[in-house]
Amino acid sequence: MTSIRKGTALLDRAYPEWFQAIDMNRLDLGSTYNCILGQLAQHEGIPYSVAPYHGMLAHFKIASDDAHEYGFNTPWGAAGEKMLTYRQLGNKWKRAIRRRMTKANA
After folding, report:
1. CB within 8 Å of 82: residues ≥ 6 apart
2. Low-confidence ranges of the chain (pLDDT < 50)
3. Are 23 and 98 in contact (CB under 8 A)?
């Protein structure tokens, strides 16, 4: 199963309040504009040429093929099928965001 721990740790270091920039009603891991990185790039004004998701990958020096290791994309199985849906991955991110919001408001 894909873990988002590496991704949350990266964001916690680089943008400690990253979770406040994410609109969970818009969150869609299948969209390069509404995913975690897409929303964060737009919020932080990170330059991008194709899509904000790709701008943030470049900003963090993460290859597209490695984005799943951070939970920013879904992993592919040996037969080329997605091992996790965007919705399932998005739900993991939503739980992580809720935990951080609760902690920040405590």
Report:
1. 74, 75, 76
2. 1
3. no
Read off the amino acid at residue 48.
Y
Q: Helix or strand or coil: residue 4?
A: coil
Predicted structure pTM score? 0.87
> CB neighbours of 90 closer than 8 A, spacing ≥ 6?
27, 28, 29
How far is residue 33's CA from residue 96's CA, in Å, rounded to a whole number? Answer: 20
Domain ranges for the chain: 5-104
Give the residue among 104, 92, 98 at the shortest CA–CA distance from 17: 104
Task: Determine contact, residues 3/71, Cβ cutoff 8 Å.
Answer: yes
Going by C-alpha positions, the residue among 19, 41, 28, 17 that lies closest to residue 73 is 28
